[in-house]
């Protein structure tokens, strides 16, 4: 793959020059903004989208939906970590140099690094987080996927990755989340369900308003206890009576 990168007729290289060439005509403040976004800003935005999604799904009408969504949100960062671990042997096996090693004329906006280029860690992590959020909530997930795509684009723009490095990262992050999701959800859902049934910790899964609605529903149907309602224990006065 490193040999292919040297060939200027390769579409991967041509697209690299086209995207990175935008940096040459952009103002300096835009380049600095792109660098900040690629390194920190977009990942931070993904975390904020995840937190917003968590705050929203806690108010879902059905407790089972809240449990599934929160379990999906827990899987998102775990999947990102797994994807990054999977990428370690991939990068060593492929051994593709950074684009600025073979193409010194690039406008590089980040400090030079000596690690390998394929697959992009940043694109992998961003897409894993985004896909995990998508598993939890389609609307928030689509917004997160959009951010992940911008994350990948920014690293090509900064001259630090080939487009195929980013495409590989997006594919790897998505694959890890979706392929391992059945096992992850099977393990995480009972844990989140147990938290949902507990007292104050249950507010991490169901909002106070949602739990009040669960209690009202339980009052209308005696003998049932919806998932979001913690088990009530008799107090000392009742025991004494």
Question: What would your notes on this structure say?
Answer:
This protein has a single domain (2-197), classed as Vanadium-containing Chloroperoxidase, domain 1. By secondary structure, it is mainly alpha-helical. It contains 10 helices and no strands. The protein has helices spanning 2-6, 11-25, 28-57, 63-94, 99-102, 121-136, 138-157, 163-197, 208-220, 236-240. Helix 3 (28-57) packs antiparallel against helix 7 and helix 6 (121-136) runs parallel beside helix 8 (163-197). Residues 1-8 and 232-241 have low confidence and may be disordered. The longest helix has 35 residues, at 163-197.
List descriptors.
single chain, 241 residues, mainly alpha, Vanadium-containing Chloroperoxidase, domain 1, 10 helices, 73% helix, elongated, disordered N terminus, disordered C terminus
SSE layout and pairing:
Elements: H1 2-6, H2 11-25, H3 28-57, H4 63-94, H5 99-102, H6 121-136, H7 138-157, H8 163-197, H9 208-220, H10 236-240
Helix pairs in contact: 3-4, 3-6, 3-7, 4-6, 4-8, 6-7, 6-8, 7-8
Number of domains: 1
Oligomer state equals: single chain
Count of helical regions: 10
Q: Kindly name the structural category.
A: mainly alpha
The CATH architecture comes to Up-down Bundle
The CATH class assignment is Mainly Alpha
Secondary structure tally: strands: 0
Proportion of residues in β-strands: under 5%
Judging from the principal axes of the Cα atoms, what is the shape? elongated
Using the CA coordinates, give the radius of gyration. Answer: 23 Å
Distance between the termini: 80 Å
Overall mean confidence score, pLDDT: 82
Order of helical and strand elements: HHHHHHHHHH
Q: Report the uncertain regions.
A: 1-8, 232-241
By CATH, the topology is: Vanadium-containing Chloroperoxidase, domain 1
Major beta sheet summary: none
Q: What percentage of residues falls in helices of 4 or more residues?
A: over 70%
